Amino acid sequence: MKIRKTRVESYGKMKDRTFELEPGLNVFYGPNEAGKSTLRSFITMTLFPKAGLTYPTQKAGDSGSLEVELEDGSILTFERDGKKSSSTAPQICGIDDKEYVSIYSMQPKELRDVRGIEKGEIRNRFLTIPGGADLPGAYEAIDSQRTALLPDGRRSDRCRIAQLMAAEHAAGRRVKELSNRESGDSQYAELVRKRDRLVRLLADSERKVEAADNVRRASERADAHSGTKQQIADLEALEAKLAYAEDTDTVRVKTLTEDCKRLKETAEEKEGKYDRARIKVRDCPAEAYSTREREIRSLSGSIFEYERRKRQGGQPARTARPEPAGNFPTVLIVGGLVAVAGLAIAALVNLYVGIGAAVGGILVSLMGLRRRQYEAPAQVHTGSDDDMVKYFENRVRELSKELNVPVSDPVNAVNTMMDNLEALKAVAELHEDYEEAKEKADNAGEKLSAFYDGFGGKERYNQAVRDVAKLAEVRAQLEALRKTVENVETVEVDKETADSDYTTATVEKDEVQRELAAVDQALKDISEDTTTEEAITAASDASTEVYNACLDWARLMLEKIILDKATEKAYGEHRPDVLTRADSFLDAMTGGRYRMDTDPRSTSIGIVDAETGEVKTEKEWSSGLEDQVKLSLKMAVSLSLSKEKPPVILDDILLTSDSGRKEGACKALSLLSEDIQVLYFTCDRETRDLMEQAGARVQNVRIPCPDHH
């Protein structure tokens, strides 16, 4: 899939721009704020409408189209209407919108995110041979069991085989001791006396240990008490520092933010309506229509008379007024005279009759005034029918030129003028609505800014909100710590001395216990005839366990060797195509310094230094090398993820790279563009020049200054 032409009618700040694209490497160059990210977003969101790009904010007035050519040569056009797109690219390419942004349409943050490649279906399909995804787990299971039995390259007394061998040696010593023991009543009696003495010693040792432990615990409490007081002092200082945030108003900022968002959305909606209405009358000279409004309405009111005279022709013409102009002052004079007469009658003859006559005269005068007010604004013509028709048509022709209206028929032209006049008035009303909504949105934004300014800025406000929560946490800690130091007794005992006395008493007690256990076992052995035979059996069992453990270790080692050989052969003969392509891209970027690591035991991406053979994982990469490796890998995946390859769109991903890395990346992108269309957006002159040297078509992007309304 290749984009042939991009038409942006309205998207963000970009209006009425068309771009022709080449099948291979295309570069869009321009300074910051020139519209590159806007164009990248338009192309991405029109191809994959759920891609989730948030800049610029989509509006109901967005419109434009993409003309694309599929691999079979067929041509499709995807239309954008507001926030919707008619694109079927996800179904044609067989990839979802998130995969497109992760692999094809990238800014630096998407470039460095390779979680979708390291794990899941993409890794299983493209970075391993069939079944290879299970190898790391298999290696981990074998190695964990094998090293638990016997670690590699070091001695350990805690491994399973060492523990079994120690048990075997202990069982052998026990057999030897029992075989050489003395018999007789004298030995038994001596052992009984020794046991009684050791029991008394053990009781004394336990009392000493208990006393030493009490002293040790008291000294620990004293130390803890001292440390707690210092901790309380530190927290009290922190509480005083955070106290400024105690009255932070979180409800107010929420209200202001919601108002700002709501009014901004309303302003954008009204701006879209205004823009759409303005486009319809963009060819109408608004000032001329305003100047000629009275004449247009007069012509509109004369259409009926014009058509009547045109049909009849040659008869004397009558004026456009309903009665002679002289009638109007007569009515006014008569009404005045009647009003004056009524007042005279009221004064001299009859009050009620006089008032009635005066009111009637006033009403007659008012009717005369009202008739003058609503009379026709202008007299069209008073000549013959032919003269009136010619006058009407000449005026229509002259006005049509001035108002940019085609004259196919005078009546139609006048009707068009009236329609345009009403449309211009509607546009003016929409503009007023938009300006009013914009002013409200700006005022809401200013209120929010003023609120933040009261805290020294938004970041300082956010810090105050965080400090409110921290203040509550500090006060809770203070309350808990103060309770721990209430009514605590202090002791004048050195902690090191107390610990030493406790350790000495414990060692003495343990020694007595060991001697007592040995005496008890000796007495038991003398009283039981079968003890020696059981010890021999236990020694034999211990030897068998050592043998079986060694046999298990040998089996696991053999499994590891077989798995190593099989893996080496499988990956040597069936290296994944994506890794081969990634190697070629990485070779072009690094001048042959690095290649991709294909060790199937690794669960993360690695590279091999061609000079030293050293394998480097992601933690050992510089930021520039990280960008090179991840770009190589995503470029390789882009060629395999879909048969109908959508275009790769890159937004200044080389901006932080040095000159050498930029040159290598441009060469690699030129290689990629041989098989898939590449669109690169940049504000960096050096990158533009290197791309142009690599065969790219360069187009300048710049948003023109907006119209002033």
Question: In a nutshell, what does this entry contain?
Answer:
The chain is α/β, with parallel strands linked by helices and 709 residues long. Among the domains are: 2-128 and 576-700, Rossmann fold (3-Layer(aba) Sandwich), CATH 3.40.50; 262-321 and 376-454, no CATH class; 324-372. It contains 24 helices and 13 strands.
CATH superfamily of the domain at 2-128 and 576-700: P-loop containing nucleotide triphosphate hydrolases
Q: List the total number of helices.
A: 24
Instruction: Quote the beta fraction.
Output: 5-15%
Segments where pLDDT lies below 50 for 5+ residues? 314-328, 371-382
User: What is the molecular shape?
Assistant: elongated
Tell me the major beta sheet. 5 strands, antiparallel
What is the CATH architecture assignment of the domain at 2-128 and 576-700?
Answer: 3-Layer(aba) Sandwich
- Output the CATH topology of the domain at 2-128 and 576-700: Rossmann fold
- In which range does the helix fraction lie? 55-70%
Radius of gyration over alpha carbons? 48 Å
Question: Please, could you describe this protein's structure?
Answer:
This protein has helices spanning 36-47, 89-93, 97-103, 108-112, 115-118, 121-127, 135-149, 160-179, 185-242, 250-280, 286-291, 293-301, 303-312, 327-348, 351-373, 385-403, 410-453, 458-484, 495-527, 531-573, 577-590, 623-638, 659-672, 685-693, and strands spanning 2-11, 14-20, 25-29, 63-69, 75-81, 84-85, 105-106, 594-596, 606-609, 615-617, 648-651, 678-682, 697-700. A hairpin with a 2-residue loop joins strand 5 and strand 6. It is 64% helix and 9% strand. The chain contains 24 helices and 13 strands. Among the domains are: 2-128 and 576-700, 3-Layer(aba) Sandwich (Rossmann fold); 262-321 and 376-454, no CATH class; 324-372. The strands form 3 sheets. The protein has a 5-stranded antiparallel sheet, with helices on one face. Helix 12 runs antiparallel to helix 17, helix 13 (303-312) packs across helix 16 (385-403) and helix 23 (659-672) crosses helix 24. With 709 residues, it is an alpha/beta fold. The longest helix has 58 residues, at 185-242.
